[in-house]
């Protein structure tokens, strides 16, 4: 009979086992630590350069539409189609692109995108030789634009996927932000470079050459430098299971995910409002006598402050993981900026107010994009990152077309507008702007009130690393031992 206070060897061994399993020990922590590779920054650089280059190809002709129309001997409407072809091509190819990213991998997708981007840029330049005898310039340039448009989905869907499989969990949002914001940076560069080089129609070939050279260099970097789709070892627990769901099965899971569908609808509406703003800014402001130069300045402020806001917010989200709170707050602030723009843009002689509102619109609005892409992965895990993020882009593109058609249909022709700098067609944008602000407010309220989800990817990583069951404070090993005991 054992004396009181003594512990038998059997019980003592159980106690030792319990103490050993209370949280991972040092050796286990070493085994569970994930390695990251410096090569990830090169992969990110290639994607950023490619994204920036493709954006410059998209917007090459818009800032110099008159010069382009004169050189290519077409109308301004035909010049607009050189930009619109990107939207037309992107939507039907988007599902194929998400399948390629999640099935064939990052390397093949980026290399294919870089070659299409290069061939499109070169074909545009080769189709614009000097001289009056060459009469098929526009069809060749349009073909080159189409090839570049084919590359866009391969590039623009990639940031979330790259961040997930190459970067640790405390750098994912930052990597996604850097890669995503390289696209608006390219738009900004196109608005600066195109008017600077092509001051006359004869300089259009020089402009196209200026965009073709970087595309060739980037294609070389991607083809030679990208040696694998994934690092030798995963940087996080979720990276091991990236794209674990088959593509079709992933789509089925997304269609049953209420939180994801709500994000798909509301964030897509936000992207549509941004597309309307960027597309219609000059037409809205010219009615009140604001010049094209001032409209271009407002567009530049919109992008610059957007990139700044996205960078700051990406670093914050990486540290706090407050995806839902950040998205709801920023979406609400963006809605207020949209309402303010719909009011001040209808006033005369309010340059400072308009510039400030456009800056705030970009600061709060652009910052949402990479965070929402990360949130789409968190609420839909283990569906492939390219699938969940890609469908958000598709939703934004489709709603952009619908919003632009709706707003243009709501315009009315003004008989008298003495301050207008619009040319022949002077339209009233009062009703369309109020409708745009109203729609944005409606979708923001729906999202803020009803959206909620748990962070499935972060929960899965915590469970894989620490043995923690999502939503509980105990560990899997402790639970197992208690049952055995």
From TrEMBL:
Question: Where is it localised?
Answer: Membrane
Q: Which residues cross the membrane?
A: 41-61, 81-101, 108-125, 137-157, 178-198, 204-226, 259-282, 294-317, 329-346, 352-369, 390-411, 431-451
Molecular function terms from GO: transmembrane transporter activity
Q: Where is this region: Disordered?
A: 462-485
**InterPro entries in the cross-refs:** FLVCR1-2_SLC49-like, MFS, MFS_dom, MFS_trans_sf
Q: How does it sit in the membrane?
A: Multi-pass membrane protein
Record's keyword terms, sorted: Membrane, Transmembrane, Transmembrane helix
Q: Name one GO cellular component term.
A: membrane
Gene3D superfamilies per record: MFS general substrate transporter like domains
Protein name, UniProt field: Solute carrier family 49 member 3
Which organism is this entry from? Labrus bergylta (ballan wrasse)
